[in-house]
Amino acid sequence: MSKVVDMDWGKLRFDYTKTDLRYISIWEDGKWDEGKLVEDNKITISEASTALHYGQQCFEGLKAYRTKEGDINLFRPDQNAKRMAKSCERLLMPTVSVEKFVDACIQVVKANEHFVPPYGSGATLYLRPYLIGIGDNIGVKPAPKYLFGIFCVPVGPYFAGGMKPVNFTIADYDRAAPFGTGAAKVGGNYAGSMMPHELAVKAGFADCIYLDPATHTKIEEVGAANFFGITKDDVFVTPDSPSILPSITKYSLLHVAEHYLNMKVEERDCFIDNIDEFKEAGACGTAAVITPIGGIQYKDKLHVFHSETEVGPITKKLYDTLYGIQFGEVEAPEGWIVKVK
Ligand SMILES: Cc1ncc(COP(=O)(O)O)c(C=O)c1O
Question: Shortest CA distance to 265 belongs to which of 283, 279, 250?
Answer without folding.
Answer: 250
